[in-house]
Amino acid sequence: MPVSLLQAPPTLTASPVLTCTDTTVACDPPSATLPADLSGTLHIDTHRLVFFSDAHSRGFAIPYQSIVIHALSREDHAHLYCQLDGPFPASAEANGDERESDAEEEEEEEEFAELRFYPKDEDMLDRLFAAMSECAAMNPDEDADVLSDDEHNDDTVDDPAVRPLDDFNPDDFITSEAQLDRLTPAGRLIFERLESAIQSSLPDRQTTPDGSASDLENSNPA
User: What residue spans carry the region label Disordered (predicted)?
Assistant: First the structure.
């Protein structure tokens, strides 16, 4: 979901979650589409973050799914920080092949953009952050969830150590000495090691007069 550049006042939902006037935005790396220290109004809308400057007739709208990180920063001048999942658009509409090519090159070089919002009323920062967190939670990145599920499923299928219960065959287990003859030399060696490990973990045993076995540690001295 890319960033949308605006050249006219945005259409918002009936009741935006929060609106903050007298807000300055800074983009890093700088963008030709945004004048330095552009001042306008920041809207925390239900499905996107919207900024627009009436004085310059410029602005942008960003779906919450395109915002990787948002946070409050108290360093220098307090501000609301946002990191996008890609570069900021180089132009609202490319004029000619040359400008379009330049825009594509810039987008390839810059992996992501950072936006900083500086409200004139710094007391608004906590409210802006809370409202944005709430809206972001209501608009999860479905593509990321699908990718995560696919990666989990791929790991499960590709891992030879993980087998569905239906794949197990009772014939895979050794239940009699006759089946030992079918083992390869390597398989027999593994079997002997496992058997030795199991025996060493059992308590010492002795044979009673009637031929049954009992634990030495539990037997009473005569």
Answer: 88-113, 142-169, 197-222
